[in-house]
Amino acid sequence: MLQIKPRETDMDTSPAVRGRGITKSFGDVVALNGIDLDVGSGQVHGLVGPNGAGKTTLLGLLLGLAVADSGSLEILGTTVGRTLAVPEGVAGFVDGPGLYPSLTARQNLTALASLRRYDAGGTGNVDDALEQVGLTDVADDRVRGFSLGMRQRLGLAAALLTKPRLLVLDEPSNGLDPAGKHHVHRVITELAAGGTAVVLSSHRMDDLAALCSEVTILATGRIVFSGPLSKLAAESGELDYRLVTSDPATAHRLASETPDLRVVPGRDSGQGPGADVVVRGPVPALDELVVRLVQAGVALRELGPVVPPLEAAFLALTGTGTVLAQTDQEDQR
């Protein structure tokens, strides 16, 4: 099988990506404006932002599909100049993987290995890559009949053949069913554990929370946040929480009486079986409400944020004011 093992050199000390002051324009449109980016080896780094924020442009720079107008960019210790090229060890895709629709999944990978002179290990590594992404059963089916999620997984399998040190993925969870998502998440996690740096763009906050240690948020070509997920979650401030209890009327009253906590108007009925109460406030105040509910003999059946903390932070930082669509596509290159 394709073995993913930790690298013995520079895994923790050598950054996979180091960008400073990167700018890129398309005519009068400024896609990137003074971007700084650091991605360490073995790190999964999320790249998020509203449509048109410049995410696809930045991913293209990392894959050698575009060049910056100014600034400096180092990838895997090599300075990237003003040519469409990146060092060996970089793999991935933007706007979906490039595949031959008339060929089968196995033939696509075999052709790629031959064209780029990868060591395909006969058919062994090709079959192993297909197994890792869960496409063994359709290995001999033509790609033209593949769903979006299957094509995404085949693109990831193609990247695995390169044994990448930097993997760049654009919306890797697009079109995935739960089984496909499990395969993709497992591969990304194992690659990072082996020392590969992964940069992924996603509109799905659940993917970011599950996979990433750090995120960079872009808005209109500028960075509005870059750092650990824990710090990003703290940026969300007070959140709205939905409570489902055995006694909604009592829950409503106790919530109203809890210091620093307020019931969100128009969001609760406060009566009837299964009715919910939506409250807003800091976590300590929410903890106090839970204690009061228990002391009053009210069963708490459900408690969770109306909008996940990471998404709330995103909305606050970008000023978009709307919940992210999970399948939105980048509309600015």
Describe the structure.
- Residues 17-245 form the ABC transporter domain.
- By secondary structure, the protein is α/β, with parallel strands linked by helices.
- 31% of the residues lie in helices and 26% in strands.
- It has ten helices and 14 strands.
- It has helices at residues 55-62, 105-115, 124-132, 148-160, 178-193, 205-211, 229-234, 248-257, 283-295, 309-318, and strands at residues 15-26, 29-40, 44-48, 70-75, 78-79, 90-93, 166-170, 197-201, 214-219, 222-228, 239-245, 262-263, 276-281, 300-305.
- A six-stranded mixed β-sheet has the order 6-7-8-3-9-10, with helices on both faces. A four-stranded antiparallel β-sheet has the order 2-1-4-5, covered by helices on one side. A four-stranded antiparallel β-sheet has the order 12-13-11-14, with helices on one face.
- Mean pLDDT is 84; it is low at 1-12, 269-273 and 322-333.
Question: What is the element layout, followed by pairings?
Answer:
Elements: E1 15-26, E2 29-40, E3 44-48, H1 55-62, E4 70-75, E5 78-79, E6 90-93, H2 105-115, H3 124-132, H4 148-160, E7 166-170, H5 178-193, E8 197-201, H6 205-211, E9 214-219, E10 222-228, H7 229-234, E11 239-245, H8 248-257, E12 262-263, E13 276-281, H9 283-295, E14 300-305, H10 309-318
Parallel strand pairs: 3-8, 3-9, 6-7, 7-8
Antiparallel strand pairs: 1-2, 1-4, 4-5, 9-10, 11-13, 11-14, 12-13
Helix pairs in contact: 3-4
